[in-house]
């Protein structure tokens, strides 16, 4: 069994992949650990696969899997963890934003008995708007989620074999790994590192993706939004009762009078809006159930290449 597997999801990373690979080998060589690198090509269209083929045929420690289309980073991480055979697994990005120099430090901490070693980045060099949004988001997450997620604690981490096996045993198809890492537990330690800009290429995370990712995070870990919907409904009902009492009192004291066109319209529109929002929340959960019930695989593999150097094509 190799001591370390490095799992790297890649989507359109042909510009940096070679630099990344060299940096990784340079960082691992002095440690003397036996390792393998598991690349997952997430349906890249820019020749990343060719680069990976070349790396894999030049070095038996390199293996890769290539998806039939883009399935997202979560699917890439899952495929990589399934490929990994090491006693410890490091998950990292291909764009050098996760500095390979930190891997020896992770191994060091792992040797002290930790099952999860998390590299937590600060937010240097990030736009002010994105920074503010992330801050607010993590505050929200801490309030609403049953699992603990630290700001800046991403996927860059080392997992012990038993932690990986545990993650692989979780069957859900909607994988929000930040939450899953926290859910599985085990002894976890983190250390901070300075955020670095991506070496080349562009980030695949833009506004809308981030928003959806955020919503996924909030919804995939509990049903608290449903509980909130019930609370909102109860409060509204209570205020309606109070308002009705007030009207009755008015009629009794001042006699019948029927203004109130504006109040009616406002009430109808406000209630309509709240109902639709709540239906949306319910729909979101129903959608999730539907999605899980289909039991589709997380990804479709086009090609894999193992240490034997022979390409194996799979169809599903
Ligand atoms: N990635 C992936 N599939 C995707 C998007 C991203 O495998 O659909 C990989 C990407 O190649 C990189 C890592 O996930 O290795 C992080 O992506 P990116 O740098 O775009 O995200 P950011 O660092 O901006 O959060
Ligand atoms: Mg990046």
UniProtKB/TrEMBL annotation:
Keywords: Membrane, Transmembrane, Transmembrane helix. The keyword Membrane applies. Residues 5-167 form the Glycosyltransferase 2-like domain. InterPro entries: Glyco_trans_2-like (IPR001173), Glycosyltransferase_2 (IPR050256), Nucleotide-diphossugar_trans (IPR029044). The keyword Transport does not apply. Residues 301-316 have a biased composition (Basic and acidic residues). The chain crosses the membrane at residues 228-249, 261-286. Pfam families: Glycos_transf_2 (PF00535). Belongs to the glycosyltransferase 2 family. This is Glycosyltransferase family 2 protein.
